[in-house]
Amino acid sequence: MATLKALLESPDKSVRLQAALAAGTYPEPEFIDVLVSQCASEPDFFVRDTLSWALIRNEIPKVVERLKSELISDNIQAKSQALHTLTKIGDKQFYSLITHEHLFDAHDKVAVTAWRAASVLVPENESSALAKILVTQLGRGDSDVQFDLTRFLCALGDSMLQPLKEAASSSNEAVKLHAAFTLMRFNEMSLESSKKSTVGGEGFEPPTFSV
Fold first, then answer.
1. pLDDT, tens only, 41-56
2. What is the widest separation between alpha-carbon atoms in the chain?
3. Residue ranges per domain, the chain?
4. Is the fold of 1-121 the same as that of 126-211?
5. What CA–CA distance (Å, rounded) separates 102 from 87?
6. Which of 211, 62, 87 has the alpha carbon at shortest distance from 150?
7. Contact status, residue 121 vs residue 98, Cβ threshold 8 Å
8. What fold, for 126-211?
């Protein structure tokens, strides 16, 4: 464990990447804390993503238990990466760990990661409630943030249509435009999926919307 920690503290990102790969290839329970701690400070995106991969190679309940403290951390990156790791785990039983505080976080990085995690983990019977929450964030941030929100709303499917149509009539111009764009994008994706289904013929399974 001391060796893993030392390697993950190397100034060379290739060394850190190889260490994370090794930790995932040969997972050990004692690596979990080291990997999670590194997530909070790791500057390189690819290394962070590998750290999350290495984590989910371990016993998931133990990983999630360790992530709980990160989810309420004041460290923006720690919180965001913990949410990202939950998305990688992909188990809907952990949806409740994504709180309103995450979804409305003042930091776009945390909020966007929470939106994505929620859209992946939400149980079907809570999809409409999530859609209503996410619609309140229309018009927020720059174009990248707004496009991300559009993607995650579209991933919810038909459950987001009614609150989105209501938002398209908003007196707030930014909200109105964002809602209209999202409706247009959803309609485009629905048409694309329909065309692929028709071309594929019998037995063809149309793709789910990507998040």
1. 999 999 999 999 999 9
2. 58
3. 1-121, 126-211
4. yes
5. 14
6. 211
7. yes
8. Leucine-rich Repeat Variant (1.25.10)
Q: Which pLDDT does position 210 carry in this prediction?
A: 41
Q: What is the pLDDT of residues 171-182, one digit of tens each?
A: 999 999 999 999
Q: Give me the percent of the chain exceeding a pLDDT of 70.
A: 90
By three-state DSSP, how is residue 28 classified?
coil
Average model confidence (pLDDT) across the chain = 92
DSSP state for residue 141 in the 8-state scheme: S
| HSE-CB of 59 using CA atoms within 13 angstroms | 6
Q: Out of 1.10.10.10, 3.30.300.30, 1.25.10.10, 3.30.70.60, which CATH number does the structure's domain 1-121 have?
A: 1.25.10.10
Burial call 17-29: b when 16+ CB within 10 Å, e when fewer:
bebbeebbeebee
**Confidence at residue 199, expressed as pLDDT on a 0 to 100 scale:** 56
Distance, in Å, from the CA atom of 99 to the CA atom of 29, rounded to the nearest integer, reads 27
CA gap 139, 149 in Å, rounded: 9
Q: Is the pTM of this model over 0.85?
A: yes
Cα 153 off chain centre by: 12
What is the token pair recorded at 123?
């149980």
Answer yes or no: are the C-beta atoms of 135 and 167 closer than 8 Å: yes
